[in-house]
Every structure is written in C-alpha cells, then in structure tokens.
Amino acid sequence: MTIIDGKKTAADIRAELRVRAAAFEERYHKKVGLAVVLIGEDPASQVYVRNKIRGCEDAGIRSFAHYLPADVTQEGAEELVRSLAADDAVHGILVQLPLPGHLDAERILACIPAAKDVDGFSAENIGRLALHEEGTVACTPLGVMELLRRYGVETRGKRAVVIGRSNIVGRPMALLLLNADATVTVCHSRTVGLAEECARADILVAAIGKPDFVTADMVKEGAVVIDVGINRVDGKLTGDVDYASVSKKASLITPVPGGVGPMTIAMLLSNAISCAERAAR
Ligand code: GUN
C-alpha cells in the first residue's frame, strides 16, 4: 500500500508554478493577477482565503484581496465583482463560498466572466468540460486527476466510482474521469446498493462530507482510494474514508489531512496562470 503524499506533490507543483508565473512576467512585463473576494467572517473561509493569498505570494502571483462585510448588499457584491471583471490587472476572480444567506450566490458568480473564472464553476466552463473542450476545471477534482497522473494510476478502461454529485466536486470529477477514458458511476444519497457499486471500483473517489462513510467492506482489494472529505470531528480533521480499515485493502490511498487538500490551492494558482496565459495570447 502506498500513501499518496499530497503535500509533497503540491510542493513540487508550486515549484513548477513559480517558473510558469515568472515566465509570464518576463514575457508580458506584468504579473499574473488573482482577485480573492471574501464576504463575511466564516472562520473556515477566512483560513482558506488566507492560504490562497499566501499561495499567490509564494508563486509570484499578484493577489487582490477584497473583504466585504457580512451585511453587504447584493448590488454591492455584484458591483465589486464587475469592477474586477473590468480590471486588466486581474486575470482570475474567486469569490469564496459559502456566502451569507441573504445573498444570491448564483447572480454574484454570474458577474465573473468565464475567462476569469478560476474556480471553473461557470456554466460555460462546466459545459466545456462536459464537451471535453479546453477550459477551466474546478480546483479540487483537477487536483485529484493530477495526483492520479503523478502516481501513475491508469484510468483508461478502469471502473471509477465517485460518491457525491456536488457542482464543486462530484460532477466535474465524474466528467474528468470520463474524459480520461474511465467507466464512471456516480453514487449519491438516493443510490440503491451504494456499497456494492463502490466495491466494484478500481478507483473510488469519496466526496460526500460524511466522516468515515467509506468502510473496508465497500472497497475492492487493490483499489485506489481518493478521499476528498474534510470533516471536523471533535476539533480534528477527518475524511469521508475510514482510513484505518480501508488502507489495509487499498493499493493507493490519500490521507486526510495531507492528501487532496494541499492540491486544491496548487490547482487554483495553476488555473490563475492558465487564465492569464490565455488572455495574453
Ligand atoms: N469553498 C469551498 N471550496 C471552494 C472552492 O473551491 N472555491 C470557492 N470559491 N469557494 C470554496
């Protein structure tokens, strides 16, 4: 059994990103620019945003951090995003989710042009992914594909099961695996016989947000198990996979923390550089 080291892989990628960001700057005489918008004071979001800003600094990307109060109006939030959309120094825009309840997230995200949508959440980018066209892909599922690639996991012809169908992870994950020639099944809260579906998987991706949901009986001997879950249980981070039992059956497995998590920011920075490169050419 091999433990997939997301921390080390993300560090390797970030070294490559520094080179890409520097090459962009050298060629176009300006830095790649990423705007990060945080609305309100959700503690988890504050940590994520701080890490994203730090990631920018580390990669040589110019960050534009915007903090709006929790009671900002719909119009105020949209106004900010529209101004970032019009700013030539900003190549990518990220609005940290979730938003305070009174705001219509869909309408705010709709103010981000597809070319600056570093999260890959827009209908245009999801559509491009579904059509297997070039575009921006959501950071977390992209990070999973990068881990599979760098650990030499063959996807062609393999049975892949994704548990979870969220717009941020499950759906784009399934599309990426399909584009990589896997035979893909998506399981969710209404799936009948979920354990049996999972037990057939050569590659099992858990993205449901339920601590220790995937147990050893749901995993085929030798399967590759990717745990996207980040659950806080008694102040400790736990994944969606019961690591202690599943790691005895898996050939490759991601730990939590230190698996998929560190890859997400690396992919965000990579997406920002890609948006800048596309805008410049
Ligand atoms: N909140 C949790 N994950 C994400 C993400 O990938 N992007 C944004 N914008 N918000 C998030």
What does this structure look like?
The chain has 281 residues and is of the alpha/beta class. The protein has 2 domains: 28-112, Leucine Dehydrogenase, chain A, domain 1 (Rossmann fold, 3-Layer(aba) Sandwich), CATH 3.40.50.10860; 139-262, Rossmann fold (3-Layer(aba) Sandwich), CATH 3.40.50.720. The chain contains 10 helices and 11 strands. The strands form 3 sheets. It has a 6-stranded parallel β-sheet with strand order 1-11-8-7-5-6. α7 links the parallel β5 (159-163) and β6 (183-187). The N and C termini lie far apart (44 Å). Guanine binds at residues 94-97, 119, 139-140, 168.
Distance between the termini: 44 Å
Mean pLDDT: 98
Bound molecules: guanine
Physical arrangement of strands within the biggest beta sheet: 1-11-8-7-5-6
